[in-house]
Here is the input.
Amino acid sequence: MKITELLKKESIKLNTSAGSKEEAIDILTGLMEAGGRLNDRGGYKEGILAREAQGSTAVGDGIAIPHAKVPAVKEPGLAAITLPEGVDYEAFDGSLAHLIFMIAAPAEGADVHLEALARLSTLLMVPGFKDHLLAASSKEEFLKIIDEAETEKFGEKEETEAPEKAPETVANPEKKYRILAVTACPTGIAHTYMAAENLENTAKKMGISLKAETDGSGGAQNVLTKEEIQEAEAIIVAADREVEMARFEGKKVLQVPVADGIHKAQELIEKAAAGQAPVYHHAGGAESGGVSSGSGDGLGRQIYKHLMNGVSHMLPFVIGGGILIALAFLLDDYSIDPSNFGKNTPLAAYLKTVGDQAFGLMLPVLSGYIAMSIADRPGLAAGFVSGIVAKMGMTFSNPAGGDVNAGFLGALFAGFAAGYLVLGLKKLFSKLPKSLEGIKPVLLYPVLGILLGAAVTTLINPYMGMINNALTNFLNGMGGTSRIVLGMIVGGMMSIDMGGPFNKAAYVFGTAQLAENNFEVMASVMAGGMVPPIAIALCTTFFKKKFTKKECQSGIVNYIMGLSFITEGAIPFAASDPLRVIPSCAVGAAVAGGLSMFFGCTLRAPHGGIFVLPTIGNPLGYLAAILIGSAIGCLILGLLKKNLKEEER
Here is the structure.
């Protein structure tokens, strides 16, 4: 199948315009529907947005390739638009997208289209191809340019069958490669092939021999052989999903996101050629599959990644359960029975019960997914049960639990303990005969993993309980000034890196305190997180001369982002001017967090921004804290930034 068979005239729109990324997606999904490729436009758009949530599909240099492989696609297809004025597609290099191809791939069925999509991704990396498409004056010319470029690069041969997985051989077995690469993106459609093409082209310009294996939707192609791996100096793994890593045991391996293969090819090749890649050691030795030992990361980075995997899976339970509990209190009648507040009326009782169940899963889910990040799927059950053991406060003297409160810290320890225990079991069992391979995941890992994880957690629970109780007592015993300082610290942390480690640490601390019935910390955390986008929005409104026209337009959106507690809305402004934006927002956020504590505001719902205001203790004081903090951040930023010249706006 050729590229032009996937791209119909009805799905092309030249010289159009879009005011935003969302508008561009709307145009393209409409074109895809006009080409008869979809059975559910809404479902397809959801798939596109879900992929964008993983990271922008803009590849820089004015090109974006949004794509989705979902059941809403009836048959494979392409849609394309050119935008002379460009649109902000959140590209890594800050460039506006002038050429956008959208890819629709069915979730099931024959993959005859994958070769064509791989070809398109490869052609987009060819110098001059994009410029010729942008200059096309008609749809016919647009299609002709693609057809001629495809024929020139790949020849006349068309694929009539789904591309087969490449065998463990290469076309030229005598060819030796200094560097090898493996590329893979979550969907295996576009970025996989673009990264491979860019790595190979860049290496060729640098005079370095490089072979890239593409692990796409149709299976691995251009597969690396054992001989090539043995002789190579280093391997670059540019992947956003799991690839077969056991074969690289003992080799120097650079592990990076697939986007780096597109954007940082020269840097990666230079590091690999200079021998700057760390030696890779596979968990479980020579087993196929499994997980990486993380040799590409330092110990601190590994721990942070495991923790964030647990936190990211935990948050939906915390947020969903917390908001339902808050709504139960909002809708209940306190006067009926103060001791049963939250469950006095049927509706409140239902919401409170569901919320409690969701919130109660917070600690086991945290432990389970930390363990899974460390030991892959075999770690999940051990981590989950260890988290429950920590939540129950089990001890050997009282297996029923309840004597100690291990809390969040106990669950945190339980996840890491269970994960590394299962990882140890995997290494131990790698020496068993192959005939016993089938009983590992269904018998050995679950039984021994759960038992050992629970035992270690039970042993450590009393100590975690002591630490947790000491911290809770310390916070509860803090006086007015000390609590205000605490509020300023967690509020300011929410703004320092706006979604990074400091932000996450403050948010996790706030959610942990919810489990201890300390609702003031979470209020300060959310207040601090709401300030940066609101402060920037205010500044773009009242200090227009200090921003470009586009920044002023984006500033309006930040009102909504801030009120919704989406701190990340401030990131584009912080990235473009960090020395002025970050300190201004951090001061405003710290003021808001401190004032929230000063006013005695409480928050049971760990998300929702202004939309959960009725559930907040002292809502007027909370609004005042956010408004004052945002105003201070706005004024500081307005004073620090200089006016732009007329031609710069």
Remarks:
- Confidence is low (pLDDT under 50) at residues 158-171, 284-296.
- The two ends are 47 Å apart (CA to CA).
